[in-house]
Prior knowledge:
Layout: H1 12-17, H2 22-32, H3 43-55, H4 61-70, H5 86-95, H6 99-112, E1 127-136, E2 157-165, E3 170-178, H7 184-187, E4 197-199, H8 207-215, E5 219-223, E6 230-236, H9 240-245, E7 247-258, E8 263-275, E9 280-286, H10 293-301, H11 304-316, H12 327-350, H13 357-366, H14 374-379, E10 393-395, E11 398-400
Parallel strand pairs: 1-4, 4-5
Antiparallel strand pairs: 1-2, 2-3, 5-9, 6-7, 7-8, 8-9, 10-11
Amino acid sequence: MSKSIFFTGQPILNQLLNLIDRSKVKALARTGKYDHYYKHFDTYTHLVTMLYCTLNKCTSSREVVSGMKACSHKLRHLGILKAPGKSTLCDGNKNRSSDIFEEIYSFLHLAHSKLLPDSRAVNNQKLFIADSSTITLFQEILGAAGRSRLNGKRKGGIKVHTLINAEQDLPVKINFTAANANDMSFLKEINLDPGSFIVFDKGYVDYEQYQRLSTQNVFFVTRQRKGARYIEESSSPVPEKSRELGVLNDRIIVLGTRTHAKKIKLKARMVTFFDKQKERTFEFLTNNFELPAIQIADLYKKRWQIEVLFKRIKQNFPLKYFLGDNENAIKIQIWCAFIADLLLKMLQMQLKKKWAFSNLSSIIRLHLMSYINLFAFLNNPDKLSSARITNQLVIGGLDIGSRNKNGPAIS
């Protein structure tokens, strides 16, 4: 039998792990004291285990542990000594703070950001999109939104508040709350560079935060809530071309509300737009008075991009079954889904051949522990030549297919 031309000395999982600076993970764990009271199941081993679970779409801790034990002879390639026990994994998910996985995601995004698109979309300024997605839980660990069932039983839910960079198509800030929490709390924590644009839906109506964004010279685009009160100051003529595209009105208004502390009056711009496909009229609210009205409507349409990201995460990574019945374990699993998404996104961007994200995820899941040169195979899946494969994937100074400088020697 002829030897596969795509053979390499590392499993596919380790080729992805080579995108992570192992020494940095250990440094973060040491600084935050996340490895105290653990003899063998350190933060890096925990990360590898959870990425194995995420990429392999495991649905239980027993499935994770037995799957890793079945390929125990390959684990040294991953930089770990042995597969954790089921109780060890469950205890780690319960007791090791999810904050370390948030830190790992943040440093990975920062380390690879220079390889991401330039993220300049509107008047040479950055565009961000904010929204939330609710993940239903198997029991009421966190408060769920909506009414209880007739039998009195109800499932819990966790709300994932996310801010993404539109050009990079990756989250730059993620927060978690109970599903019944209000979205407006997330808007208070967002701080952007002056001149940036942020798009969000009408669930984030907070005039005080609108005023803060305006003071910081950050431009927002959102929907006007039905029944909101305002005073119309003036109206601008709509060009014929914009009117043909659906713009009905372009007005300057003053929004007003009274909080427990002060009365707020905010000058804003309201663009009324008719969507011919949906046959619906929308009122868009913004603090930008320079862009053409049709461009304000187009900016809000970009908000759908974050819905696509949520769909990508939920379809390709297991967020229906969780390995723990506590809040910390759930957060760890969600953070590892975002880390896996980031790793696959970095891989996808470096390939010469275009792959759909779902197909890429499936290939990796099916061959996660196979000794296949991932980069060479994905670029030439139909290659029949027996020539030696020498291409390597180099991202952020790390070489996929070569030995990790902090890992075990690989022949």
